[in-house]
């Protein structure tokens, strides 16, 4: 059997393999002239993408493992929807497991997915497993990091993340420019890249305006709803209460606004809330003006899906390191 | 090798295998005297539950597939947490896949999980796959149905569900007793047992009070948030608008209250909302009084976990058909 690869098509058409992939998967730019030429060559060589893909890796299972730290967080579910929609025509299915913001559990789940012989793994890491993750990626099962980079980030693994530092910096600056100096911060885990980068973004803005950071105004959470509840409870025990809350993910923000509501406080009259990430439920508030960094989870998922198609079907090597820039919005 | 089973222990102790299982798994009631006797026999026979379990089914993978129609619905996530917590000490892990309220997708996912050689499947069915489900359950991979029964329910498959008819009946009766006759109903899928049973419960209450059912006040949805939004939009186009909304699951309720809020309507001043299932976000409303059927998803998950331990480890045959009774609550 003489199998036609995209390399053959690239050679015959006089373009790069990346261009062939873009044309055949209908993604990214190519001129009409190039598109026509590539498709003509593909037809003439009787190119069959799925058959080729299977022949390249005959033990393919057509399943992709997805490890996310909190399976009920709508942010990760939107990313998954984007991945699934993009892979739909390729007959790939997603298997979800929960990392539970726990290094040991994530480690176990990486091994379980390898035992299940998934073709690739999409991972929002809870931190601490750099070595195993690199090992799996090098063994031929491609990993795509989403939302969170490795602690020792070398850029060798595909990743689609946000510019967290910039987003948190802009968000904090907005609060300072509105006159807030007493800001209660609800941190995510500092062991996770998003948690650390958002905290650094906040520090950068505070530094720029020569504002000191008071430790009693920093609550170190772990990205879960209950942290938002606890943080608010703590802040309101202080003598000098914050005039603004800065929360570093959507679920902690949800916990915070639920708790503020329970305490009879109104946003933004009694307290201003700023959030890295949207909380759909905030629309139920009387005055739903929560300053926030808008995230694009569906678009991130689509990008991840395209990377997977390149790695698994088009046999195009990586890594791709894509960074989404923050969009600041003052209304939910 | 002479393998000790719980049957041997039951014989030796003079109690049933179910009692032995209860004692050894520390679940359910047994007198102190029986507990001591069973444990003594187990020790004397050198009973090793995990080793035995493995010997009974040597190709065990220690994974359980979970198919849920909407992976982002907090109700199913609470059930999953209950399962996971109960199975924690047994070293079992959950693999989640999404059925997407779609018969074809669910069918495909059942096959994918079988290919992954899961030891058991927990399923909230989207409907229409009775035959395949029975086939898998009879093939030795136990299925536990959660939330939803088969369309042709014979009770032969383990199930943990709610008394949906009674819950919806009580909820509707409450609305009628408050003086509402013009009730806008947001239905789930009638192909799914919960959707059908809740609708019948509503019909029963309407009949009891000799109230006719107007088709323009029935919106047939599919248990997703967007159905709640659409239903409200439709109801408010009617000449005779409903004075109360009756929504048959938590996510449709969320969509409905988001849409009511957008239209500037206040609950319960402008319109009363009743919901089968809680919506945590309703706490953010000015007056968060949503009449609702309280569900016990975590407790359902614990029950499912115990059934799985019986089937996979204690080798106790089923089926168990557990029904949770509704709790009506007038405040979220």
TrEMBL record, chains A, B:
Record protein name field: LacI family DNA-binding transcriptional regulator
InterPro entries from the UniProt entry: HTH_LacI, Lambda_DNA-bd_dom_sf, Peripla_BP/Lac1_sug-bd_dom, Peripla_BP_I
Taxonomic lineage from the root: Bacteria, Bacillati, Bacillota, Bacilli, Bacillales
Organism: Lederbergia citri
Record bears the keyword Repressor: yes
Repressor found in the keyword field: yes
Domain HTH lacI-type: 4-58
GO molecular-function term, one example from the UniProt record: DNA-binding transcription factor activity
Record keywords, A-Z: DNA-binding, Repressor, Transcription, Transcription regulation
């Amino acid at each position: 059997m003489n199998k036609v690869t995209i390399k053959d098509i690239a050679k015959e058409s006089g373009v790069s393999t990346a261009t062939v992939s873009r044309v055949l998967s209908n993604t990214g730019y190519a001129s009409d002239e190039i598109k026509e030429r590539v498709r003509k060559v593909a037809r003439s060589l009787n190119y069959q993408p799925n058959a080729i893909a299977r022949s390249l890796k005959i033990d393919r299972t057509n399943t992709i493992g997805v490890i996310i730290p909190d399976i009920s967080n709508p942010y990760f579910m939107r990313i998954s929807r984007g991945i699934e929609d993009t892979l739909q025509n390729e007959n790939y299915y997603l298997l979800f497991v929960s990392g539970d913001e726990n290094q040991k559990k994530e480690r176990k789940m990486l091994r379980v997915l390898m035992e299940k012989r998934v073709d690739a793994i999409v991972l929002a890491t809870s931190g601490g497993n750099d070595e195993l993750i690199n090992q799996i990626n090098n063994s031929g099962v491609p990993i795509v990091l989403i939302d969170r980079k490795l602690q020792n980030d070398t850029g060798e693994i595909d990743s689609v993340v946000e510019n967290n530092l910039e987003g948190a910096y802009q968000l904090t600056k907005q609060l300072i420019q509105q006159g807030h100096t007493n800001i209660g911060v609800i941190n995510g885990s500092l062991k996770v890249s998003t948690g650390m980068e958002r905290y650094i973004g906040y520090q950068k803005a505070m530094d720029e305006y020569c504002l000191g950071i008071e430790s009693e105004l920093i609550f170190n959470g772990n990205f879960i709803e209950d942290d938002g509840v606890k943080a608010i409870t703590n802040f309101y025990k202080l003598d000098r209460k914050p005039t603004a809350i800065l929360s570093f993910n959507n679920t902690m923000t949800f916990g915070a606004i639920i708790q503020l509501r329970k305490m009879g406080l109104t946003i933004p009259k009694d307290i201003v809330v700023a959030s890295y990430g949207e909380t759909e439920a905030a629309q139920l508030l009387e005055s739903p003006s929560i300053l926030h960094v808008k995230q694009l989870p569906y678009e991130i998922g689509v990008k991840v899906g395209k990377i997977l198609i390149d790695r698994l079907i088009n046999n195009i090597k990586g890594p791709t390191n894509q960074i989404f820039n923050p969009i600041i919005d003052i209304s939910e």
